[in-house]
Amino acid sequence: MSLKSFLAKQFAKFIYKKTKSWADNPVETQQTVFEDIIRQAKNTQFGIDHHFDSINTFHDFSKKVPIRDYEALKPYVDRVVQGEENVLWKGKPLYFAKTSGTTSGAKYIPLTKESMPFHIEAARNAILHYIHETGNADFVNGKMIFLQGSPILEEKNGIQLGRLSGIVAHFVPKYLQKNRMPTFETNCIEDWETKVDAIVEETLHEDMTVISGIPSWVQMYFEKLKQKGAKPIGELFKNFNLFIYGGVNFEPYRAKFENLIGRKVDSIELFPASEGFFAYQDSQKEKGMLLLLNSGIFYEFIKSDEFFTDPETSGPRRYTIGEVELNVNYVLIISTNAGLWGYNIGDTVQFTSLKPYRVIVSGRIKHFISAFGEHVIGKEVEHALKQAMENTSIQIKEFTVAPQITPTDGLPYHEWFIEFDPDGSGELENEDAFAEAIDNAMRNQNTYYDDLIVGKVLRKLVITKVAKNGFQDYMKSIGKLGGQNKIPRLSNDRTIADLLKRE
Q: How far, in Å, CA of 248 to CA of 363, rounded?
């Protein structure tokens, strides 16, 4: 065992004990975070406007601070962007994470000197928990790659801004810098395809042990590597044994990855966002990711099926950590030491464990299909596809689902746009049987969907094959190829569907 591996194991043991101390006291930990962030923001403009000086309990907070999304918080954010101090948080932010917006263009998410360290620590601790549980630490001696956005930052009114992954790149500890790939110059390449080609050239003959990134983009890297090296990834990188990912469910990609790699590798799931690093997989044996209750973030949860209701004009009920239940779909609401208050990030989660609190990301509150009252969420379509693929040779590269409300003939239906992997699947032998298997899995999960099929409001789903690289071409056409950009699993309209059909 190398000295580096030995030290990593000792540090992992220390971090595990430290994590356990707050994870064993979840309600108390969250109460401490709540009191701390309210105290620190009391004299900010937001704190004054919302009477933080008279907030003593969560009940007080929920009465004074409404749930907001970015659009609703934007008047405050705009003031911060203009350079004003003490608006959402004390002083000025260190950075803005610039992300793709919806109705208002780019979003500027503040990162403060209080919030920034937690982004770094969480990613580090995820790896350390893996080392502690498995005893595997040899990978620390090899090369690691993190597929991410450009670290080049702009400046706006004295505050630096860029993509979160690019900002984080500036905080990689010195002891990892020698092992880290690609080079800074390659990381700065903006065009994603050019960048991946350069990364392939740089890494092809290296001893890569850890690879990290969003699955769809890592898949693109693997495909180019395999083509260039004429070998499975597991042969090119004999010591590659750990894949770290976040942003999307890995399951739809797993079969394709194992085919590309040529063997199974361990994986760690992360739940990072510009707004905060919320959770990471702390165990290879347990389902879900450990919710980070001690990271300067106070969490609230609203049941998804109550989110758009407004009983007695008081809004839906807001739950705290001690009140949540297993297997219920919740909208995640955060208040943070970066100055986001009662903030709806748009993600939905389900708890898989309450001791400790572990979650899975079940979808997006904005990404659902309920064109006919079916309330289909991301977790359901991913699970249905996984079930249908079991015991088959079928591999898929990407997929999305949209309703077809006005078909040229027959009943409406859900249209599944699937890019099959020709190398793994070959031609889909029996499309009808595969569609039937997905449909049955959907009906078993979602009673609303089943009722609509039985009641002949909907007919069974229809599969539309997407041409090779069709999703990549679509993302390129809207300027979102690579980085942290992801294909939505679900849309309640035909915006993406119509563009895919045009490709």
A: 9
Element (H, E) at 7: helix 3-23
Alpha-carbon distance of 456 to 25, in angstroms, equals 50
Written as one letter, the residue type at 458 is L
From 109-113, 196-200, 405-409, the region with the lowest mean pLDDT: 405-409
Three-state SS for 68-81 is ECHHHHHHHHHHHH
Give the angle subtended at the CA of 207 by the CAs of 203 and 210, to the nearest 5°.
Answer: 85
DSSP 93: -
How many angstroms separate the CA atoms of 360 and 352, rounded?
7
Three-state secondary-structure class, residue 175: helix
In which band, very low, low, confident or very high, does the pLDDT at 481 lie, cut at 50, 70 and 90? confident
- Tell me the C-alpha to C-alpha distance, in Å, between residue 161 and each of 97, 108, 290, 399: 6, 8, 29, 32
Three-state DSSP state, 480? coil
User: Are 466 and 500 spatial neighbours (Cβ–Cβ below 8 Å)?
Assistant: yes
- Residue 400 pairs in a beta bridge with 417
Residue 390 pLDDT more than 60?
yes
Peptide bond before 182: cis, by omega within 30 degrees of 0? yes
Q: Which residue's structure tokens are 């040229």?
A: 408
Alpha helices in 159-301 (DSSP H): 164-168, 174-177, 184-187, 192-203, 215-229, 233-236, 251-261
Would the pLDDT of 311 be above 60?
Answer: no
Read off φ and ψ for residue 382, nearest 5 degrees.
-65, -40
CA dist., res. 492 & res. 141, Å (int)? 47
| Element holding 400 (H helix, E strand) | strand 396-404
Domains belonging to the chain, first-starting first, are 1-365 (3.40.50.12780), 378-502 (3.30.300)
pLDDT score, position 479:
78
Compute the distance between CA of residue 330 and CA of residue 301 in angstroms, rounded to an integer: 6
In 3D space, the residue among 254, 223, 146, 153 whose CA is nearest the CA of residue 483 turns out to be 146
Cβ neighbors of 415 (< 8 A, separation 6 or more) are 401, 402, 403, 404, 461, 462, 463, 464, 497
Sign of CA dihedral 460, 461, 463, 464: positive
pLDDT at 307: 82
